[in-house]
Amino acid sequence: MSSSASASPTTEPTALPTAVAVHEAVHTTEAPAPVGPYNQAVLAGGLLFCSGQIGLDPASGQMVGGGDVEAETRQVLRNLEAVLRAAGSTPAQVVRTTVFLADLADFAAVNAIYAETFGEGVSPARACVEVAALPKGARVEIDCIALVG
User: Catalytic residue among 42, 82, 109, 128, which?
Assistant: First the structure.
């Protein structure tokens, strides 16, 4: 008895390409050095994730402004801009921010200064929250996510 078996093509399962998580730390001396196990920012997949900045002078490591929220906010934004620059980004490429305030009564003053940096073009999406306390007695902290390239 002769049987003719046709060979059906078999396909081996193909492995799906795995995404390689490539990320790198960003550091600049133009912004305060981290004081813990974190980076000033991490660049991953064309996005820059900036850690929160407070009003520390990068040279002295001391808070600026003596409790003046406007002076702190200006320093916070200078620090963020330095980190953005170090990664090849700009405030115009920021897509998301979070503003942390020790006192929500400071919102109007902080918002006016914030608008000087982020008020042109497409302003970033933003959350603003009052918190019980910030590091070093800061009155404002801001973090952001930005595009790079």
Answer: 128
Query: Do the Cβ atoms of 81 and 74 come closer than 8 Å?
Result: no
Alpha carbon of residue 85 to chain centroid:
12
SS3 letters across the chain = CCCCCCCCCCCCCCCCCCCCCCEEEECCCCCCCCCCCCCCEEEECCEEEEEEECCECCCCCCECHHHCHHHHHHHHHHHHHHHHHHCCCCHHHEEEEEEEECCHHHHHHHHHHHHHHHCCCCCCEEEEEECCCCHHHCCEEEEEEEECC
Beta bridge mates, 43:
24, 48
Give which of 123, 105, 103 is closest to 114, Cα–Cα: 123
- Is 83:31 a contact under the CB 8 Å cutoff? yes
Question: Which amino acid makes up residue 91?
Answer: P
* This prediction's pTM: 0.85
Is 128 considered catalytic here?
Answer: yes
Q: What is the pLDDT of residues 107-137, one digit of tens each?
A: 999 999 999 999 889 999 999 999 999 999 9
| 147: Cα separation from own chain's centroid | 10
Contact present, 80 and 142 (Cβ < 8 Å): yes
